[in-house]
Recover the amino acids of this structure.
């Protein structure tokens, strides 16, 4: 099943869920893991907006799985002698294929890998979900790793709610989050995954991703085209 197929199935589900969220829990902090996240988050936003309950600081598309893959796959590429948890690799963009942009130039600790090998790792981060679908012969997709990624993001939210700010990447409506309007203007899109400072009431600030390498800029230029199409699909569904 392609992400387009998923959208046809899941868009109406997300619309109905968030119509009820707006009616019954308008102050809720909501996390969307339902694919295609690039499109379902705009659907959720519009459903909340129609219900008079949209607050961009309380709606997140969870892209943590991409962060987990970025750190895991680079650890594997370096010979498996490093614990993947040692690596902090920013991942911006969206949550599908070429819209996933790992910023290995900003990795902590620094990554020392040749261009060809690094390109293979990036491709694996972008399309790692396909490996799982193929290994399950089409009978399933990423489940346990998605569960872990979801747990990690929810844990970060709860930590922030308790008074300790946490920085995590998420796919958000940029113009509605402090610091995000400038990023949206630079990119030409309103939804994008960036580092977000999580606070007691949700997203406290969106953080600019800074200077990219030449290859990362190329990936960004490519990914932005698809992100725009994905956003428009979600908005068009809600406008129909």
């Amino acid at each position: 099943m392609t992400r387009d197929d998923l959208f046809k199935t899941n868009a109406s589900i997300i619309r109905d869920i968030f119509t009820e969220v707006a009616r019954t829990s308008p102050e809720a902090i909501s996390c969307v893991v339902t694919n295609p996240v690039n499109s379902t988050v705009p659907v959720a936003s519009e459903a909340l907006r129609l219900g008079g309950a949209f607050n961009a600081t309380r709606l997140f598309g969870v892209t943590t799985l991409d962060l987990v893959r970025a750190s895991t796959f680079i650890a594997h590429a370096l010979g498996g002698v490093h614990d993947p948890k040692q690596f902090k690799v920013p991942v911006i963009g969206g949550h599908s294929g070429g819209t996933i942009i790992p910023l290995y130039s900003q990795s902590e600790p620094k990554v020392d890998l040749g261009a060809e090998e690094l390109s293979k790792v990036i491709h694996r981060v972008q399309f790692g979900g396909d490996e799982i679908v193929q290994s399950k012969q089409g009978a399933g997709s990423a489940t346990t790793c998605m569960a872990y990624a979801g747990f990690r993001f929810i844990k970060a939210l709860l930590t922030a709610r308790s008074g300790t700010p946490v920085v995590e990447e998420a796919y958000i409506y940029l113009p509605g989050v402090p610091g995000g309007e400038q990023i949206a203007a630079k990119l030409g899109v309103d939804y994008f995954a960036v580092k977000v400072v999580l606070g007691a009431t949700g997203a406290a600030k969106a953080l600019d991703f800074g200077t990219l390498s030449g290859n990362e800029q190329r990936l960004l230029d490519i990914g932005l085209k698809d992100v725009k199409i994905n956003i428009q699909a979600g908005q068009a569904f809600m406008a129909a």
Summary: Strands lie at 30-32, 59-61, 91-93, 100-102, 166-173, 191-199, 202-207. Residues 96 and 151 are 20 Å apart (CA to CA). The two ends are 24 Å apart (CA to CA). The first strand starts at residue 30 and ends at 32.
